[in-house]
Amino acid sequence: MAGTVTNLDAFKENHETKTVNTNRKLKVGIIGTGWIAGAHIENYKKMPDVELVAAADLIPGKAEKFMKDWGYPDAHIYLSGHEMLEKEPDLDAVSICTYNRQHAPCAIDALEHGVNVLLEKPFTVTIEEAVEVMKAEKKSGKILSIGFQPRFNPNMQMIKKIIESGELGKVYYIQTGGGRRHGIPTPFGTSFIEEETAGIGALADIGCYSLDMCLNAIGYPKPLTVSGFKTDYFGKNPSYWTNDGKPANYADLFGVDDFAGGFIRLEGGVMLDFRISWAMHMDTAGDTLILGTKGGMRIPSTECWNGSIGGPLKIYHDVGGTQVEYEIPMKQNTKEGEFFHKIRSFLDAIKNGGTAPVPSSQIVYNQAIIDGLVKSSNLRREIKIKIPEL
Ligand SMILES: NC(=O)c1ccc[n+]([C@@H]2O[C@H](COP(=O)([O-])OP(=O)(O)OC[C@H]3O[C@@H](n4cnc5c(N)ncnc54)[C@H](O)[C@@H]3O)[C@@H](O)[C@H]2O)c1
To answer: Does the beta carbon of 79 lie inside 6 Å of ligand 1?
Structure first.
């Protein structure tokens, strides 16, 4: 199809990474020292082969306080990711923990400086940005891994294993999404709700997780068309905020979606019926349902929908003409937790010359759906999903 990435496998094949000397510690920097940077540093701290050398934040004093609080008073402190990359030529890797709008510029900058990148989700704001990051990745020969820690949760991994086992037959329909009744995130300010910092709301923040759960399980088929819509009825309502004890002007600052949904056609004859919410007048927007020709799977939703599973997976079958259903017992998480493994797998790929644990060649399809849904919603009609040439 003209104007699309036609061969992502070629991208992977040509994309060579180099091993680093494993006898020394990996030098790591953190770009953006807000909320999620805490989860990164907490886990880096547990890794004896990591030296946390630098941190950057646009807000004066923020990175310095962050590093001091985590026990790194001697870390080098910078006022932007760019300044850090210019002045720290020996960095092996950075965690990019900025708000969404700064994902692409910081990732491109780091890759152009020859630094491996662990980039927080969502990949980017637009599909055009995602492709620019992938171009920089390919040119650099460095690793770019996208921060989807649910990939390392044993129950999430079970979903993929069940589908790959053929137990459901051919998957033809997926209902996914879910979300919160009252949960527009403003934990430390308004970076999730302002257009200039977040760019997209619930759709990218938590929508990207449920898309990844399902698309990864079925092998990330290419999205073809989307009919989407999005709304902002709660975020734009001053009483939503005052009821929460927050300033009424958050309604003026609110510049993203708080609810989004869409129908997406995927290559291979799969229909994806998706909805996601930060706020709605309903207790749940539903469980994830995966329908196949031989069986169906129900994945219970959670109140928060941040990439976790609300209870045991349920499988539905016909056996000898009788309808049966059974539960897959929940697996215990690893003792280190999924966030540790998201970082560890990235570092191991750097050390061993491996490939990205959560590769851009998959997540570009996740981003294409999000981007297509925004464009379709703005145009108020179904559109073809177009991914710019790499
Ligand atoms: N994986 C997860 O579980 C998870 C959880 C929460 C947030 N996130 C993601 O992490 C990202 C950050 O979220 P947050 O809650 O920490 O946001 P935040 O607003 O608390 O922190 C972001 C920080 O980045 C800084 N920043 C922005 N651009 C910068 C630049 N160019 N150089 C240096 N610093 C820069 C800001 O000043 C701010 O302090 C978001 O994209 C979000 O989607 C992921």
So the answer is: no
Please tell me the distance between residue 355's alpha carbon and the centre of ligand 1 in angstroms.
25
Question: Is 186 close to ligand 1, i.e. is its CB under 6 Å away?
Answer: no
Q: Is the full-model pTM beyond 0.85?
A: yes
Could you give the domains of the chain?
Answer: 26-150+339-360 (3.40.50.720), 153-334+367-383 (3.30.360.10)
User: In the chain, pLDDT over 70 holds for what percent of residues?
Assistant: 94
Distance 13 CA to ligand 1 centre (A): 32
Which of 30, 31, 33, 35 for a ligand 1 pocket mutation test, highest count of atoms within 8 Å of Cβ?
A: 35
Q: CB of 98 closer than 6 A to ligand 1?
A: yes
Q: How far is the CA of 58 from the centre of ligand 1 (A)?
A: 11
Segments of the chain with pLDDT less than 70: 1-22
**Alpha carbon nearest to ligand 1 atom 14, residue:** 35
3-state SS record for the chain: CCCCCCCHHHHHHCCCCCCCCCCCCEEEEEECCCCCHHHHHHHHCCCCCEEEEEEECCCCCHHHHHHHHCCCCCCEEECCHHHHHHHCCCCCEEEECCCHHHHHHHHHHHHHCCCEEEEECCCCCCHHHHHHHHHHHHHHCCCEEEECHHHHCHHHHHHHHHHHCCCCCCEEEEEEEEECCECCCCCCCCCCCCCCCCCCCHHHHCHHHHHHHHHHHCCCCCEEEEEEEEECCCCCCHHHHHCCCCCCCHHHHCCCCCEEEEEEEECCCEEEEEEEECECCCCCCCCEEEEECCCEEEECCCCCCCCCCCCCEEEEEEECCEEEEEEECCCCCCCCCHHHHHHHHHHHHHHHCCCCCCEHHHHHHHHHHHHHHHHHHHHCCCEECCCCCC
Tens of pLDDT, residue by residue over 313-331, are 999 999 999 999 999 999 9
